[in-house]
Design brief:
The protein is an alpha/beta fold. It has three domains: 3-232 and 344-397, FAD/NAD(P)-binding domain (3-Layer(bba) Sandwich), CATH 3.50.50; 237-338, Flavocytochrome C3, Chain A, domain 1, CATH 3.90.700.10; 422-501, Up-down Bundle (Methane Monooxygenase Hydroxylase, Chain G, domain 1). The chain is built from 16 helices and 19 strands. Helix 2 packs parallel to helix 7 (137-150) and helix 2 runs parallel beside helix 13. The longest helix is centred in the last third of the chain and has 19 residues, at 463-481. The model has no long low-confidence stretch (mean pLDDT 91).
Length: 509
């Protein structure tokens, strides 16, 4: 089906509807080879998916001195002992197979001779991160999967469209309503897969692209899907601090190669804060950067040693980014800030990606599998997207969700994109200050009250904005309810971990 033909129709039918064409969505589509699949994306995947922005790589314990057990321990430690052990064991156990699947799919991973080149990133006790095209791994993976999906006879694509609402019939999800340049389109499907990415754009400071607005999660929440761990948002400590939205990311692998965080006065930011120093888990480093900034200090990433060594060839993206904004990283440190980067929470799913609602599946960042707990270990996200994308596709091959007769609940015809709505801008600012790297009860209660007032004032055409506001309030309420500091959730009024809340995060739907 061509985009033009689809746009001439306002009601479409398909067997499996996949919303999103990042790594998770493409893996679902490719592996659901016995079903008829329609993939919807707002633009070509290399321009619209968060996956394509991923720089670090994909983690897998494939080195001669590494092991599955060591990777599992690093994942659980980074997750503040809040990950689901069964999920961690299953995903890490499938990591080597996932890498080989990508190789078979045409991903050109970097090599040292005949062996895959392995890199170490923060939180990892060993070099176990594989890269493709240096620090452009996500883009390389998406391109390879996209080319393979375009050649697959069971997959069709619909571009230049965004989902704004799930179609619900007596508790079953039976498709979605889209916004397109020619108006709304309703797509009816036996099975609907959300692979819409994360929520980074809900924060003023973010590394996430323009489509990471949380709409997939917001639609699922509004439809009644169970969610988990909404309070856990990871902030990346080294976004290039320039006038840009999103902020350009300076990959964590730079610190793995020897870059160091310093203040403008030359003081090492991570001195005495953590045994791993600059390679401490992201939540620790992000709070250190945040606290320096709150004290009025400028934070810099000194990567001059990296860019004056042969390792510079491994970071073409970082070099290009720095120069684009007028910096020469071989001669000067780069200004950085913490920024919203990844959501550990999301739609609660079981071990093959099924949500609590019949007919609804979720994979990638929009889902909460229990792998990341309270803080994601670097480069585990691409691994999760591949493992769960393949698992969802395999499960879809086993059969379809039983059809439900009738007409879906009334959909919102008048929804519009709130990108330029001042209320959306204000929400992003509010989220940054109340749900940023350091939180407190008073700020959260005030923010919840403000968001509740905005929700009450929403009109008919504000359906998309209203769902984002509802999601923001749910995240704030989850953060307020967690009266402890754990992983990426840090409360200045509860700075210690509470042993009474030590139960791991289980996302089983």
């Amino acid at each position: 089906m061509s985009d033009a033909a689809a746009m001439r129709r306002t009601n479409l039918e398909t067997d499996v509807l996949v919303l999103g064409a990042g790594i998770a969505g493409l893996c679902v589509a490719l592996n659901a080879s016995e079903r008829r699949v329609l993939v919807v994306c707002p633009d070509e995947p290399v321009r619209s998916s968060s996956s394509a922005l991923a720089q670090g790589g994909i983690a897998a314990p494939i080195g001669a001195s590494d092991s599955v057990a060591a990777h599992i321990l690093d994942t659980i430690e980074a997750a503040a002992h809040f990950a689901d052990p069964a999920t961690v064991s299953r995903v890490i156990g499938d990591a080597a197979q996932a890498v080989h699947y990508l190789i078979d799919s045409g991903v050109p991973f970097d090599r040292d001779g005949a062996q895959l080149s392995l890199h170490r990133e923060a939180g990892h006790g060993a070099a176990r991160v594989v890269h493709a095209a240096g620090d452009r791994t996500g883009e390389a993976i998406v391109r390879a999967l996209w080319q393979r999906a375009q050649a697959a006879g069971h997959i069709e694509f619909l571009g230049n469209a965004r989902a704004v609402e799930l179609l619900v019939l007596r508790g079953h999800i039976c498709g979605a309503r889209l916004l397109s340049p020619r108006g709304p389109i309703a797509i009816h499907a036996r099975d609907t897969v959300l692979a819409t990415g994360g929520i980074g754009r809900m924060f003023r400071m973010t590394t996430n692209g323009p489509f990471a607005t949380g709409d997939g999660l917001a639609m699922a929440l509004d439809a009644g899907a169970r969610t988990a761990a909404l309070e856990f948002v990871q902030f990346h400590p080294t976004a290039l601090y320039v006038q840009a939205d999103p902020l350009p990311l300076l990959t964590e692998a730079l610190r793995g190669a020897g870059a160091r965080l310093i203040t403008a006065g030359g003081r090492p930011v991570m001195a005495g804060r953590h045994p791993l120093g600059d390679l401490a888990p992201r939540d620790v480093v992000s709070r250190a950067v945040w606290e320096c900034q709150q004290a009025g200090e400028i934070v810099l990433l000194d990567a001059t040693s990296v860019f004056n060594s042969p390792q510079a060839a491994s970071f073409p993206g970082a070099l290009e980014t720095a120069r684009r904004y007028g910096f020469e990283p071989s001669r000067q440190p780069l200004p950085v800030t913490a920024a919203a980067h990844f959501h550990m929470g999301g739609i609660a799913v079981n071990d093959h990606g099924a949500s609590s609602l019949p007919g609804l599946w979720a994979g990638g960042e929009v889902a909460c599998t229990g792998l990341h707990g309270a803080n994601r270990l670097a480069s585990n996200s691409l691994l999760e997207a591949v493992v769960y994308g393949r698992a969802i596709g395999t499960a879809l091959n086993l059969g379809s969700t039983p059809a439900v007769s009738g007409t879906p609940d009334a959909a919102t015809e008048a929804a519009h994109d709130p990108e330029h709505d001042p209320r959306w801008t204000a929400l992003r600012e509010l989220m940054w200050h109340s749900m940023g790297p350091v939180r407190d009860g008073a700020s959260l209660r005030s923010a919840i009250a403000q968001v509740s007032t905005e929700i009450e004032g929403c009109q008919l055409g504000d359906a998309v904005l209203r769902r984002r506001l509802l999601l923001a309030r749910a995240m704030m309420q989850s953060a307020l309810a967690r009266s402890e500091s754990r992983g990426a959730h840090w409360r200045r009024d509860y700075p210690q971990r509470d042993p009474q809340q030590d139960a791991p995060s289980s996302a089983t739907a």
